[in-house]
């Protein structure tokens, strides 16, 4: 057995460090090589189209595949316990490739009514304009999915916990429902990360990650990935990843590889810090409501305990007159950056105003959907706080003085 073949028998932290990597056979370099070459010396019998590409072909052109990106894909597959992975230039690059791969005119897809804003926005207009029918439902209620299933349903797309509400969806329950009509289930697991949840083991067909967030972990590189079976992903790589061109830079792949080495330890600290800060916020007189899957007050805490081995590091909370206070709070914060994104070593906070979000991103078709939104986001809006790896006491002091 080669050294790489034994990787699946190792624990999560060992995989994070060693999977996909092997010392350079020529120089003996222990760190992965960064191969910044778009093109590779080809065999004279190599074809010019990706159509003829075999699995074991040598490298040809970086949009088709690259040794550094390949190392990252192998590491991601080991962590997610999937057969394979395809990396993209961003999480959205991965999502659009998946939609283009699975859907054509006349097909129907069911999408979570609250999900990453850019996905919500392309499925409000761009995708329906291609003749693909989209139904948005609150996927945390599996019955709501059952009600809108059609013989033409090809995809059920969920995000758990969803951005920005931190509402959960029961993956096992939804996988059964999708399977009943032969639809594929895709799970955006960016918020949970493979430290918390392994959607493929719960019945999902595809997992999406924005590597920009917890996996990369340092706020310095965009990246995305789709994970799943070789049967699904080998054609996906040929038909969409390579042709649509959302390829990851090998440099970003190398940064993300480096980030993943510490991913399991980071997730433990993200969770530990987040629980302390969520508990602090819940007791703060100015805070009306805190949502964190690790708190017993989360409406789906039982599902969180069942489906998440780590509650991750994102908290949302409501304060009285949030919209009026946001400028002052942002100016007062010294450690926490007022900025979008999440999953970095730095703590980040951003205010999300209901009125804006419901106009631009989330379009609800039933009163139940709006009720569920309000149950999590309140009437006005929420602060989304991504807890970093600073000392929890410093983060608590920072929030204390900013909320005063
Ligand atoms: C950030 C994010 C994305 C998009 O990822 P990018 O790398 O920014 O393109 C998708 N899904 C979720 C849940 C995210 O948080």
Condensed summary:
With 404 residues, the chain is α/β, with parallel strands linked by helices. Helix content is 38%, strand content 15%. It has 14 helices and 12 strands.
Which features would summarize this protein structure in a list?
single chain; binds pyridoxal-5'-phosphate; globular; Aspartate Aminotransferase, domain 1; 404 residues; Aspartate Aminotransferase, domain 2; alpha/beta; 2 domains
What does this structure look like?
It is a single chain. This protein has 404 residues and is an alpha/beta fold. It has two domains: 3-260, Aspartate Aminotransferase, domain 2; 263-403, Alpha-Beta Complex (Aspartate Aminotransferase, domain 1). The protein contains 14 helices and twelve strands. The chain has helices spanning 12-18, 67-80, 91-102, 117-124, 142-148, 171-180, 230-244, 250-260, 263-283, 301-307, 322-332, 354-360, 367-377, 392-403; strands at residues 84-88, 108-112, 133-137, 153-159, 184-188, 206-210, 224-228, 287-291, 314-319, 337-338, 348-353, 381-386. It has a seven-stranded mixed beta sheet, sandwiched between helices. Helix 2 packs parallel to helix 8 (250-260) and helix 11 crosses helix 14. The longest helix has 21 residues, at 263-283. It is globular and about 70 Å long. Pyridoxal-5'-phosphate is lined by residues 90-92, 116, 159, 163, 188, 190-191, 210, 212-213, 222, 224.
